[in-house]
Each structure stands twice: as structure tokens, then as C-alpha cells.
Amino acid sequence: MHTAPAAVGRQIGQAIAGTLVALTVATAAATAQAGPPAFAAAGTVELAFTPGDAIDASIIAAIAAAEREVLVLAYAFTHPRISRALAAAHRRGVRVELIADRGQTLELPQSVAPALAREGIAVWVDGNFGAAHNKVMIIDADGPHATTITGSYNFTLAAQKRNAENVVMFRDNPEVARAYRAYFRRLQVKAQRWTGDGVPATTKPR
């Protein structure tokens, strides 16, 4: 018995459809299982806490050791010594870039962002969210001694002297640094470049 051409066509169509459904389900399952990126252990992980540890001194030392690049994501940034360390790095040829929360930058009279911008450091303000609440520094992401600093610690004197805060420093771990740098670049695309004078263009929080 011969199968009619129409029946053969239906069988082929059903097989293709079944294969596509299976591939779609498998892809969705793989995506769901993938989760956030994970990185192999590398370098050292340093933990610090306030009260007790001189986190600001550790951050300043890391900036002083930078050779090529320091990228900063900041919410409140008022710490004068950390600001001066960034300015010094900029003057010795390190590329320094800052993305700061728009509200904190414009509303806090102690914010160091305007002075850093007028120093010639590239500054962006981010008003695209309810809060640009990151506290991150990425140092020399492409180098063997890449360092990433993150945690609850705002770059403020209050974080050092009055608050209970924590910081983790990933040292000699380029993979982690590059992941944070990619995040920095994603935020930078929609942030507003600012010279430190006047009020930058308004964006609506998402």
C-alpha cells in the first residue's frame, strides 16, 4: 500500500512541529537552569566591615595601585579622601569614569561628583531607576591584578564612621572585573554625561 502524498506531507509537518516544540522546551529549560553567571575561583577575596575596619583606606590603596582604569558606580559619594584618590589617579594618566545616582548627586551639597567632573574626570548621572544604588569600583579589568570592590558601603564618611557596612574585594580576578565592567557599560549607555555645572537632562525612572 502506498501512502498518499498529502498524508506524507502531514506526517512530515507533524514531525517538524514536534521537533520545534521539543527544541523550544529544551531551550527554555536550559535558560531557566542557567541562572546568573558563575566564575571559577581566582585570586583572593577580602572582606571588610564597619565599624572596625578602615574600608576607606583599603579603597584608597586600591585606587593608588591602579595602572590603567578605574570605573566607579556610586549612590551617595561624599568621601573627600576617596575623591582625592580618584583625582590623583586621573592626573597620573589613569582613565577614571564615574556613574552616580542623579538624585544624590544633585541634592547632596557634599557630593564630590561636581568637583570630579570639573577636574576633567568623565562623570555620568543616572536617573533611569528609582535609585542607582550600586557601590562598585572596577580597577584594571583587563589586567592580571584586576580588582572589584562592592558591598553596602557608600563612598561617604558616614559609611566609615557611623554605619554598619560591609565590602568584598575580589583581587586578581579579571573575570569578575570584566563582568562588572560590562554592567557599568550597560548603565552608561542610558546615563547622562555631566560636566558638573547646571542640571543634566531629566530622565523618567523605569
Describe this structure in words.
About 8% of the residues have low confidence. A hairpin with a 7-residue loop joins strand 5 and strand 6. Helix content is 42%, strand content 21%. The chain is an alpha+beta fold. Strands 1-7-6-5-2-3-4-8 form an 8-stranded mixed beta sheet, sandwiched between helices.
Name the quaternary structure. Answer: single chain
Order of adjacent strands in the largest pleated sheet: 1-7-6-5-2-3-4-8
Computed CA radius of gyration, to the nearest angstrom: 24 Å
Annotation field: number of helices: 7
The unreliable regions are 16-32
Q: SSE order, as H and E? A: HEHEHEHHEEEHEHE
How far apart the termini lie comes to 64 Å
The proportion of residues in beta strands is 15-25%
The proportion of residues forming helix, as a percent range, comes to 40-55%
Tell me, what's the shape? globular
Please tell me the overall pLDDT: 86
Which structural category do the helix and sheet elements fall into?
Answer: alpha+beta
Keyphrases for this structure?
206 residues, alpha+beta, eight-stranded mixed β-sheet, 7 helices, globular
Give a quick summary of the entry.
With 206 residues, this protein is an alpha+beta fold.
Tell me the layout of helices and strands:
Elements: H1 5-34, E1 44-50, H2 55-64, E2 69-74, H3 80-91, E3 95-101, H4 102-107, H5 113-118, E4 122-126, E5 136-139, E6 147-151, H6 157-161, E7 165-171, H7 174-190, E8 192-194
Parallel strand pairs: 2-3, 3-4
Antiparallel strand pairs: 1-7, 2-5, 4-8, 5-6, 6-7
